[in-house]
Design goal:
It is a single chain. The protein is of the alpha+beta class. It contains twelve helices and 24 strands. The strands form six sheets. Strands 13, 15, 16, 17, 18, 19, 22 and 23 form an eight-stranded mixed beta sheet that branches. A seven-stranded mixed beta sheet has the order 6-12-11-10-7-8-9, with no helix packed on it. It has a three-stranded antiparallel beta sheet with strand order 14-21-20. Strand 18 and strand 19 form a beta hairpin. Helix 6 runs antiparallel to helix 7 and helix 8 packs parallel to helix 9. The longest helix has 14 residues.
Length: 596
């Protein structure tokens, strides 16, 4: 059937329940899933396992909406050959979403006797990008920082460098090679929590002098995908693995974090990028980088080294929630370091059903608790905007009262214990079709924005809130966002009451949903982010920085990664939906988008 909306006419299929989050197991749901049942991707989308070997889950699991890459080459009139859709470790960045609907019915699996030869053939011929073998260019030497003079360490919030934009917009941004370089310390060992890995590429990002230092990869892979990951690491004996065990309601594993151990101390990095080249090339990504944490004196009490934001104990509790014996040593090491200089709050999600005081440990109720305890009401509070920016969207229900404008809005509008809970303007920043079409990557950028038609058609009411991706202030208008941010911003868009950078997209799975007459909350995925509150910086609000780049060490403004105020979609624009075709206009590489 077809359905009209203010964002265009879509052809849609009847499928799925109202809520795309997998239901809590009932009596008949203990059966094993069918062999071809779609898996869930990084932020929860249902996807089918591809035939190509995968290095991680995000794109591998998301790349199954179609069996072939849905890019057709408009400039090539010869056969309408569709290139095989590849996995994200090859740079095809098909990632990130919550609670998506199952992919179209997958093709039959090949017979077991045919599986290995076909996989090998695909692997041998896989191009590094849907644009061809020569898409990725080596960055020139002056692309990278040689010192820390241009770094603003007040907020310690940084964007990733982007290839293909003017140099000034990368001055003060960070590339993974810089993060792992001697600029930040003499690296001894590292722990990489992530969802998608390209191990050979990752190893190359370490400088030669650190390239053989021990690395632990924390992952959630199982069975065949785990075997492929282990196979990929065989040439690198310094790499070990930590597999996160699964509980029934888990729909997304291991969020993105680095624990870096130096001769000089220890550092935490919480980021939005996968460990694949595509995520560090032409996307807008962000990270928080901690100060260098020194070791505590021998014999220090267990409570030593805590920050005013309780970051140390919150980080330890988050790591313990993984229930992984391999992380025990990391946990003990962190206890031996001084984290007192931390000025951000940790906001995590871990899967489970929580009651009583535990309800406020994770997800949006954790955010609500911190906003209640550490912020104060502001003048004209009812006019302050709640702004969320994300790269995918889960099922919100048939109308806004089901979750978004109910419990989630109550959290986002909390300012102090006595703050008013008035109806507020909600501004949702999510790329339009035109944003994707004209991006640096073109339509393939939409592989990292997997909002499906099956979900979208059930919540057309949501799209009236959408605003496009425009980031002239950071030079990243054409670098599609994989970053996720939430904030409370003043009516004139010059002040922030708080700011959050996180892995959590707009979904109940990521943030949690109340159950049993609000006496229980269920969270379905691991998420991780950091919350900036003005009180931790001895400020009443954060001023919004007008000149983010080139970065200045003396700047006091907060570097919001996109333009304020956001621009509402025009009457002709529609949100990017990744599993419908776009053939009316080619993208920046002359391609159109044709899902199978």
């Amino acid at each position: 059937m077809s359905q009209d909306s203010q964002h265009g006419k879509w052809t849609i299929s009847d499928s799925e329940d109202e809520d795309n989050i997998p239901p809590t197991p009932q009596k008949d749901s203990n059966k094993p899933k069918p062999k071809l049942s779609p898996k869930r991707n990084e932020d929860n989308h249902s996807v089918k396992e591809p035939s190509a070997p995968a290095m991680g889950s995000e794109a591998r699991k998301a790349a199954h909406v179609n069996q072939t890459i849905p890019v057709k080459y408009e400039s090539n009139p010869s056969p309408s050959v569709k290139r095989k859709r590849e996995t994200e470790e090859a740079g095809w960045n098909l990632s990130s979403s919550d609670d998506e609907t199952p992919a179209p019915a997958p093709k039959k699996e090949p017979k077991k006797s045919d599986v290995n030869p076909k996989k090998k053939k695909t692997e041998d011929k896989r191009p590094p990008s849907p644009h061809g073998t020569s898409y990725y260019k080596e960055e020139p030497a002056d692309f990278f920082e040689t010192n820390l003079l241009s770094m603003n360490d007040m907020y310690r919030f940084y964007l990733n460098k982007v290839t293909g934009i003017p140099k000034k917009f990368n001055t003060g941004a960070l590339h993974i090679k810089e993060i792992l370089s001697p600029m930040f310390g003499t690296l001894k060992e590292s722990v990489q929590f992530n969802y998608c890995f390209d191990i050979p590429w990752m190893v190359e990002q370490y400088p030669p002098e650190f390239r053989d230092k021990p690395v632990i990869l924390v992952h959630g892979e199982k069975r065949e995908s785990k075997a492929r990951l282990i196979q990929q690491a065989k040439p690198y004996p310094h790499i070990r693995f930590c597999q996160i065990s699964c509980v029934k309601i888990v729909v997304a594993f291991c969020r993105k974090m680095m624990l870096l151990w130096y001769e000089e101390g220890f550092r935490v990095i919480i980021l939005t990028s996968n460990l694949i080249r595509a995520d560090w090339y032409q996307k807008t990504q962000g990270m928080w980088m901690s100060p260098l944490y020194p070791r505590l004196p021998e014999g220090s009490p267990g409570t030593a080294g805590e920050s005013p934001t309780n970051f140390k104990s919150d980080l330890l509790e988050y790591l313990e929630a993984y229930r992984a014996p391999e992380l025990a040593e990391c946990i003990d090491r962190i206890k031996q370091h001084d984290l007192s200089e931390t000025r951000v709050y940790l906001i995590g999600s871990t899967p489970g059903r929580y009651q009583g005081p535990a309800m406020e440990k994770w997800g949006h109720l954790r955010l609500r608790k911190l906003l209640s305890e550490h912020t104060k009401p502001v003048q004209n509070e009812e006019r302050w905007h709640v702004l969320g920016q994300f790269s995918s969207i889960g099922s919100m229900g048939l109308d806004k009262t089901k979750w978004l404008a109910a419990e989630f809005q109550r959290t986002l509008t909390t300012l102090g214990k006595e703050g008013r809970r008035c109806a507020h303007v909600r501004l949702h920043v999510y790329p339009s079709v035109e944003n994707v079409r004209t991006s640096l990557e073109g339509y393939p950028a939409g592989g990292s924005l997997p909002y499906s038609i099956q979900t979208a058609q059930k919540q057309l009411w949501l799209h009236s809130y959408f605003h496009g991706w425009h980031a002239d202030v950071t030079g990243r208008s054409n670098a599609m966002p994989h970053i996720k941010t939430y904030m409370r911003v003043s009516p004139d868009f010059t002040q922030l009451a708080w700011f959050l950078v996180t892995s959590a997209n707009l979904s109940k799975a990521a943030w949690g949903a109340l159950e049993k007459n609000n006496t229980q909350v269920m969270v379905r995925s691991y998420e991780l982010g950091v919350l900036y509150l003005p009180s931790a910086f001895n400020m009443s609000t954060f001023p919004v920085e007008k000149n983010v780049f080139p970065a200045s060490s003396s700047s006091k403004g907060f570097p919001v990664p996109f333009d304020l105020p956001p621009q509402h979609y025009s009457s002709k624009e529609q949100p990017w939906i990744w599993n419908i075709p776009y053939t009316q206009a080619p993208d920046t590489h002359g391609n159109v988008w044709v899902p199978s």
